[in-house]
Design brief:
mainly beta, 6-stranded mixed beta sheet, 6 strands, 9% helix
Length: 93
């Protein structure tokens, strides 16, 4: 199991359009946050899930999960290629 966070939209079936790999907080945290790409999420919009299960719906996430900590992957639509970028702590806000 790879515990991480998704937004309520992804949990409801929207595609993952933004994947951020933060430094894990502890051994029970993967550091992954997978969202629909909207920028208006509140804390209550996030769900703790087994993010590996999302690969059953979207195989492209397998390559995203191979990315190192402090990496952001984003795309404009489910069938679009991932754009990979390194991030700094100040970029994650």
């Amino acid at each position: 199991m790879m515990p991480g966070f998704t937004c309520c939209h992804v949990s409801a079936g929207d595609p993952v359009l933004r994947a951020l790999h933060d430094e894990p907080l502890d051994e029970n945290d993967s550091g992954w946050s997978l969202t629909c790409g909207r920028s208006d999420h509140a804390t209550a919009d996030y769900r703790l899930v087994n993010v590996e299960r999302l690969t059953e719906l979207d195989r492209s996430l397998e390559s995203v999960f191979a990315l190192p900590v402090n990496t952001l992957a984003h795309r404009s639509g489910k069938d679009q290629p991932w754009v990979i970028e390194p991030v700094c702590d100040s970029d994650q806000g």
